[in-house]
Homogentisate 1,2-dioxygenase
Amino acid sequence: MNRPTDPHLLTQAATPAGTTAGYMPGWGNDFETEALPGALPQGMNSPQKCNYGLYGEQLSGTAFTATRPERTWCYRIRPSVKHSHRYEKIDLPYWKSAPCIDPDVISLGQYRWDPVAHSGAGLTWLTGMRTMTTAGDVNTQVGMASHIYLVTESMVDDYFFSADSELLVVPQEGRLRFATELGIIDVEPKEIAILPRGLVYRVEVLEGPCRGFVCENYGQKFELPGRGPIGANCMANPRDFKSPVAAFEDRETPSTVTVKWCGQFHTTKIGHSPLDVVAWHGNYAPVKYDLRNYCPVGAILFDHPDPSIFTVLTAPSGVPGTANIDFVLFRERWMVMEDTFRPPWYHKNIMSELMGNIYGQYDAKPQGFVPGGMSLHNMMLPHGPDKEAFEKASNANLGPDKLDQTMSFMFETRFPQHLTEFAAKEAPLQDDYIDCWTSLEKKFDGTPGKK
Ligand SMILES: O=C(O)Cc1cc(O)ccc1O
Ligand SMILES: [Fe+2]
């Protein structure tokens, strides 16, 4: 057994030999981990009595009858159902769910925001979540929401789970710890974490203030994209995803559990920490991934491929090839294409593109799209390089060129994204964003030849 540097000193299982401390490698593996020897039943899930007097409890992330069920068996000090209070509704006015269509807000447009500033107020994972866009419908489990989080304070004796969604967390500033029922995940910028639907956790600030982006996925879980002709290597490799080893605490202290359920928030009281899972096995677990492990594949002779080539994870929608959400990463890479306009081309897209900058400069927008900032190019609305990027790329002497110091991402969904009132009226929206294309001039003069 080893112990993390956690202020609450959760008792943590030993790390499998040869792997990163506190984590087990592999995407969607059927893991098993125990923080006390013999806590995990062998050869069966539901013994008449569990070792150590633990309760067996199953967390199902898919229907029982799914072709490949995703579920985890937990062996815990108390079953989750032991809460002493009915659920009480609470208000978290900045955390919105779809459908959230404000008649006074126009979502049709090209939008860009500067980073939302920290306010000086003490904010937790729950009070610091600021919804920017929503798409689809949380009640029918389709679509998504995008959020910015501004977190300065740890949750103390307060826990949370979302019955509505899995959360894809993309930090941009500061370091966070997700102390979950299934173990501890620490994340910092250039890493991501995924918190499955239904999993209970508290969020602690390891180094603040913390800001980042969240994609709340109401639909089918994120999975690794099919690789098609690319084959088995490059892009995101399964072994680079890490799930935590079991960690538990046996703390009897008045606590609350907040639940997000059909877009509403409720709390209930419990007399102990719910992070009391001593051992677990299964394939439904939180996971982290270092984006620096993403191996981009691209054009090596001419032309600019579709950005789907940079998909890290995809959440299917039921229509093959048309994602509920694609999570796409634009990171450092070499540009080598000959006689090619190398930045993204001008385009309109049936999918809705929400982008965020993690660090550095994005090639299509050398100015104005800054780390911590976001942009939205909604369904079928034209966009592309700004005037500066266009002129530079059209006139550059093309040789091998490293796109360095750059990491942006896209949450791309098949559903139109609606701005929240916060995004339209409170967040630092750049009113002049569309002017970045106004000075693109007519070059056509009726004569042949490249201009
Ligand atoms: O609009 C954007 O900047 C994202 C994007 C990048 C790219 O290389 C191709 C298409 C696309 O939508
Ligand atoms: Fe685009």
